[in-house]
Each structure stands twice: as C-alpha cells, then as structure tokens.
Amino acid sequence: MTASEKLVIGSDEFILLFSEEQIQNRIKELAHQISSDYKSSLPVFIGVLNGSFLFMSDLIRYLT
C-alpha cells in the first residue's frame, strides 16, 4: 500500500498514514533507545491498552 491508497470497509473509508515499514522502523528505534538507556538494568514491560500485545511483542523482539 502506498500513502495515497484508501481502504474501504462497508461505508467507512480509511487512508493509510504510515506504512508497515515506517512503523517497524520506529519501533526498532524505540527499542534501541530503551536498550541503551537501560543497558545496566532489567526493565519490566507492561502492556495496558487493548491490543497492545502486538506493539509490545514487536518492541520486545527488537530489544538487546
């Protein structure tokens, strides 16, 4: 999908704002920053929002 593509579900129309690649790159950047900020400790991650496990699983996958 390109940024100008639209997805129609029923009568609702959605416009793509961020590609999957852009989102994954940002998650990798966040993971790198967290890894460097907490390199001498063991942080605990808790996903609170409904559906956050998808984001959390990607984030934790990229942590070092």
Q: Would you mind describing this structure in some detail?
A:
The structure is a single chain. It contains two helices and two strands. The protein is an alpha+beta fold and 64 residues long. Helix 1 packs across helix 2.
**Percent range for β-strand residues:** 5-15%
Q: Regions with pLDDT < 50 over 5+ consecutive residues? A: none
C-alpha geometry: elongated
Total number of strands: 2
Number of helices, counting only DSSP H or I runs of 4 residues or more:
2
Brief sketch in words of this structure:
The protein has 64 residues and is α+β, with helices and mostly antiparallel strands. It has helices at 20-37, 52-62, and strands spanning 6-9, 12-15.
Provide keyphrases for this structure.
64 residues; alpha+beta; 2 strands
Helix and strand topology:
Elements lengths: L5 E4 L2 E4 L4 H18 L14 H11 L2
Antiparallel strand pairs: 1-2
